Records
---
Amino acid sequence: MEQPLALAGRHTTISAYRRILRRRVLLLALMAVIGVVAFLLDISTGPSALSLAHVWAGLFQPDQLPAPELTIIREVRLPYALMAVLVGAALSLAGAEMQTILNNPLASPFTLGVSSAASFGAALAIVLGLSLPFVPLDWMVPLNAFLLAFGSVLLLEALARSRAAGVEGVVLFGIALVFTFNALVALLQFIASQEALSQLVFWSMGSLGRATWSNLAVLALVVAVVLPFSLRAAHAMTALRLGEDRARSFGIDVRRLRFTSLLRISALAATAVAFVGTIGFIGLVGPHIARMLLGEDHRFLLPASMLTGAIIMSMASVASKLLVPGVLLPVGIVTSMIGVPVFLALILRRPERT
Amino acid sequence: MKTVSAGGPLVISGVSASYGRTPVLVDLSVAPILPGSVVSLIGPNAAGKTTLLRAIAGLHPALGSIRLGERELLALPLADHARLITYMPQSLPQRVALSVLEGVIGALRASPIDGPPLSDHELLDRAMAVIERVGIAGLAMTGLDHLSGGQRQLASLAQALVRKPRILLLDEPISALDLHYQLRVMKLVRDLAAEQGMTVVMVLHDLSIAARWSDRIIVLANGQVAADGPPDMAITAGILADVYHVAGAVTADAHGLRIVIDDILAR
């Protein structure tokens, strides 16, 4: 029979667990606040510096602000900053799912070549001027990016499943994908018309400069459609972290989970890449920070990854405007400077103990 | 709430399974395993023990028939399987940023379990009760990535037990445990079989422990049954020589089987 002492201990542990859950909710709220601050900072920085008060007025009290500043905030800075938030959230969510689904801490759309595949798909659509009946041109580039991205994740998944490859094998294969698709993009640049070429160069940089309201709407729609499905799979993904055989024995159709997750990853990565080019390492760094802060209960990990991704991206965007005075660096350069050291640290981490 | 009614014995007949082109189980049949019994699968490496457990769990494709009462398990969807059977693999991934408690909760939340749905409080209470029985209550809030090999094995066992399956399949559940916990887990498994009428089939390597704690022992060799019966019938000097290629003596006394291994035999 159960001892009173043991029951008291059980009560203490359960209260401790509930406290941790409450703390995680608070942490998510705090991250959201930081995200908003970073977003406002992003709007306020630029060639003509605006105070946060100006930004606030520009967003919520437009009649209080002179017309030129209102135009800068509403037409230039706001779409740019919103794009940073959405791209960061999308890539980081994709990275978090990818790391779980492939059981690989080095996985992210950028490191495994999914972003490269997507940018090849986008470049293909631009250079060949692809079009489909009933598909608006705004959608054609992301759609083709998605098709190539999905093809590449299917390849990666098949490789991850064959026991021969292992974690490192998948990463090496991903690097091979990066090289392959970058070469193919270079080939397209070589044969591209002058006009298409100028468009293409921007893929290789990764820049927020082309944020338009219609692009923003497409990306926001993709994130809004994908997110509920991600969150619904949170319990299954948490159980998958306990091992594939175990998860299946707990009744999870792992094959189906993988497939649907890879669809989501492709949609998120491809749409982001189609509008801003390949921005590296957000999908790697964002989830790792979220995991360190909140653990791997995916109910918390997935939203937290989106928030960390959005925060890093906004801050990187601020840095890209401040690092060299008067020059707007492509934001992909900044994220790579943050991401490469993290990537190396993950590779050099001490081996698993047995 | 859907409950799956399936009493009756576990019957394995004519089961074949392979890895790629290598046959692992060859037309294997086992006399009915009765509800509430504790059965150990023993045998040399690569005899097909894990494959048999995974086939019963629906994780490895197999031909033939595995029935629980009237139900054909090989034709059962994964979700229905999971209401009846839980399989504990040999290993638990190492770098998992979940606590012991979160791992057990994860096992409960993964898919519906048999019985009425649990409230949030019941779920936590049930998870903690299992963690206490396994003897790692003090580690409930510790991360799985901070456990020793033995502690991880106990956490893994708790994840399997919490689902309270009809059939519990354990793949080397005590391989990383110290003497105290080896016996503790064996006792726990026997108690659960008696209390809940749970059938336990486990792979063990330690013949003395298998003999001491099992109702029945099935010796597998080359994907077929080499011996099957109560411990003193299944573990004999002849089996030691034929299956393990070792010379040994097996004597029965008041404390059970005494197995003394002398030397290895040339193959």
---
Amino acid sequence: MSAMPGVVAINTFREAVRDRVLYNLIFFALMMIGAAIFVGQISIGIERLVIVNLGLSAISLFGLVMAVFVGVGLVYKEIEKRTLYSLLSKPIRRWEFLAGKYAGLVLTLLVNTSLMTLGLAGALYYVGRPFVRSDGSILIAIYFILLELALVTALALFFSCFSSPMLSTLFTLGIYVTGTFANDIRSFGDFTKNHVIQVGTRVVYYILPNFHNFNVIATAGHGGSVPFALVWQNTLYAALYVTLLLVAASAIFSRRNLK
Amino acid sequence: MAALAIEIDGLTKDYPVGFWRKRMRRSLDNLTLQVEEGEVFGFLGPNGAGKTTTLKLLMSLIFPTAGTARIRGRSIGDVEMHREIGYLPEQPYFYDYLTARELLDYYARFFGYDRAERNERVSRFLELVGLTAAANLQLRKFSKGMLQRAGIAQAILHDPKVIFLDEPMSGLDPVGRREVRDIILDLRRQGRTVFFSTHILSDAEMLCDRVAVLVDGKLQGIGAPGEIVSIEVQGMEILFEMPEERAVPSTLRERATKTGARYQVEVPEAELFQALDQLRDCSARILSVTPVRPTLEDYFFHLVGREKAASHAVEVVTR
């Protein structure tokens, strides 16, 4: 296994830290502290629901913003600033560079999400609620958020290999939103009874990444359990989709003339 | 014949231009040249001549429309070959959130050195380019000249056999240029091959074993700096003094220029002996006779001027 992607990944993580990307943690911490104090004052018996829903939604949103906006600039910035010129004169293949950039951002998201998870646990502890076995679903929800972010990062990286950051952002967010409503889009197609629309919505359903299945925030909020099969299914699905996107991105990027 | 460090064979690069990108602009046209191991090779040409395009093709940053190239016998597409080469891009820009030490350490990691080896190399090369004092300063605080030095350090950090430098003197003050010249001469002493592009002709004349001149993507000449300009001899320069009571012979008077008590006249080589006879008849004291050789700069501008005049600009073809 090549060590090159690891070298690039560590540097990408260092870049994110030094560019103050993790400053979003301050906003998250302030939000959780505020919510814990506020909910502690007014809620009777629904502290857990409010804090878990708010915390998980914030983890997902903050991560999504980071994955999209940092992700679309991963390759573009290196080309635009020509830092890639010196790098590619070293014994590193273009796919290794891409894999390293991807791994670096996923590592950043992992650290960010882990620290936010600690913040969420702190807020739950503050409202005086003991941790119970069913809280495992909160951790599963966070794991699914991470899978979702890994997928979004791969999408952003894929688009950034051949389009500008603005277009890449539009494409990535567009697919994310469409993928979130993938099940609804298919149901809509079936509901119309129009064959053309049915085929169209099914194509969208099967080709675009389905983000709907990664969202178990409501289940976790209510303390419900998440089927174990879904964990495997989502893991496999994300791994497959990410691999496909990275292979496609590498194929495009390996043939690209750097200006 | 020495082994070849660089073999370029018919390298051509077209770029699509225009809104629909259907027209092609030829940036490099059928470039063929060889550079031997241990040579310092200068790649000369005005802006837009195709120098940077050539270097980017050799680094596989862009891909050729036609032609091939090999470095130390290996295809330019072979990434493992990059262990043996170093490259300084034109106007280098590096990760500005890193310090100079971190930057070099980062690049050194790609060559598999352990921590102790990396530390030793980084310190040694920072010192070589005069950046020891700024080693722990973030690159965003570096001047252009300091960035250029950091760029040179990263290009030679792993003791490459062939070093490509794109305008290495650019942005450097006279002291910095002198230091870079010394580094290049030192690399030659170590038997390394240096291929550098420049538009500073005096540097090329001083450093290079051979030079190639590129204008509008086409190779115009290649050879040793002295050899390449000796193609056109301009004439002979005679320096002389006249006795006070005598005047300069009428045939030379209009061409002669006087500086103090001395006269200087330039005559065609074929007329040299005739001119000397005339001066001797006037009791002139001949101080020196020197062949007037065009400098590399004269040759360079002669080529550029000829190209422009003939409107051989960039070839545009429709796909």
